[in-house]
Design brief:
Mean pLDDT: 92
Strand order of the largest sheet: 1-2-3-7-6-5-4
CATH topology of the largest domain: BirA Bifunctional Protein, domain 2
Strand content: 25-35%
Number of domains: 2
CATH architecture of the largest domain: 2-Layer Sandwich
Number of strands: 12
Number of helices: 5
Radius of gyration: 17 Å
Order of helices and strands: EHEEHEEEEHHHEEEEE
Structural class: alpha+beta
CATH superfamily of the largest domain: Bira Bifunctional Protein, Domain 2
Shape: globular
């Protein structure tokens, strides 16, 4: 990871820059980093606020030779890698809100957006975008109840270059194993230990409506194992639903 690093003072979106490079034949492992984004994006079309305050906004271009249906698990692999890097750098326990958020003390500090292009049933490229609230000293009033930053929680300024380097190292190790297994069996136990709402009631938001269920963690395919209120068990895919707490963000 990081064989080529493209740095921008300001950019519309690092994912957009990574896509442009991918379409031009760019190398797998290339990383795109910006000080701020004017059109940062989150999952399901949401906006990701990207101010110039010493945060991490980065995207990685990958060309994995795996089945397209397994690519969504890369979001989980990246989430686990970020959690490890945060713990090493700050000594704080980072938890994961399946499938694409990381939280500290119940508040969001990171979002992950994975996008893919498939041609003739094979992956042309995968882009994994990461936004991490690192050195923000203030959180906008409208999201103070659900968001925080590493600096606010650790009460120390974080070296973003060191943090990003740590993330790339951790992800490289986990990605290498994932390419061999094409599942998350190698990290399933550790991932579930960090799952913020495991064993708790959550709200599943699907196309057909909302319903409550109890989560039991992920399986080897990265699907969330849930038990519905009628006692039936089901595995749900991250591409099908959104998940949040019954009474709030987690």
């Amino acid at each position: 990871m990081g064989n080529k690093i493209f740095y921008y003072e300001e950019v519309d979106s690092t994912n957009t820059k990574a896509k442009e490079y991918a379409k031009a034949g760019g190398e797998s492992g290339s990383v795109f980093v910006a000080e701020c984004q004017t059109k940062g994006r989150g999952r399901q079309g949401r906006t990701w606020a990207s101010p110039r305050v010493g945060n991490i906004y980065a995207s990685i271009l990958l060309r994995p030779q795996i089945a397209p249906e397994n690519a969504s698990m890369l979001t989980l692999v990246m989430g686990y890698a970020i959690a490890l890097a945060i713990e090493k750098e700050t000594k704080m326990r980072a938890q994961i809100k399946w499938p694409n958020d990381l939280v500290i003390k119940g508040k969001k500090i990171c979002g992950i957006l994975t996008e893919m292009n498939v041609q003739k049933n094979s992956i042309e490229y995968v882009i994994i975008g990461v936004g991490i609230n690192v050195n923000m000293k203030q959180i906008a009033p409208e999201i103070q109840e659900i968001a925080t930053s590493l600096q606010l929680e650790s009460e120390q300024e974080i070296d973003t270059n060191k943090m990003l380097s740590g993330i790339l190292q951790e992800f490289h190790q986990q990605y290498t194993i994932f390419l061999q297994t094409e599942d998350v069996s190698n990290i399933r136990k550790q991932y579930n230990e960090r799952l913020v709402n495991i064993g708790r009631e959550i709200l599943i938001i699907a196309k057909g409506g909302e319903y409550q269920a109890r989560t039991e963690g992920i399986n080897d395919k990265g699907e969330l194992i849930i038990e519905k209120q009628d006692g039936t068990r089901e595995n749900i895919s991250s591409g099908e639903v959104s998940v949040r707490g019954v009474y709030g963000y987690v």
